[in-house]
Write a structure and sequence with these properties.
With 216 residues, the protein is an alpha/beta fold. It is built from 5 helices and 15 strands.
Length: 216
Amino acid sequence: MDTLIHSLRDITIRRISVSEMDNNVYLLTAKGSGAQLLIDAADDLPAIQSLLADATADTSGEPKLALIATTHQHWDHVRALPGLVEATGAKTAAGTEDAPELPVTVDVLLDHGDVGNFDGFDVTAVHLRGHTPGSVALVYQDPEGPAHIFSGDSLFPGGVGNTQKDPERFNQLLTDVTERIFGIYPDSAVVHPGHGKPTTLGAERPHLEEWRARGW
């Protein structure tokens, strides 16, 4: 299993890719307390459980999955969610507008600017409308390095997420991404998308007008 690890000052970020759709699953673990946030329980419960087991090496504390956050409602991002909730008893979070579509009860509704406080780190929700009504990105600001943006399917290397050729949804998504991501965070910010490889805002920023002109 391909695992990517970022070891930052206060947390470790692990990523695995699961399913035939190359879905990314991310796990943030506080080095001191062991508090964990998992982003997108996409598929393959055994692989996610192995990810959690591997992360015991990332902390001097007792690992504890505090929250499972879902970036958006699409089925490929939630296939392992019911099983993971049953196995761990962890609370769940999702964007307010997408939460009713999830296959589990959502404990924490995320709106734009909401901050999740974990024992050892904070994460901020950024509402990005367009790919789905309640899509959210989750942002971790490293105290000694760049921000890490978990963008779900709203922002990828080379463009924004799929809006099914709906010009209104596309314009909404590109506007939100431009104002709420590119307008707030610097070029050094790392983007961790829902599928595929990471990028930086600096690599993508020069292409924003090109994306708007092409309409996808």
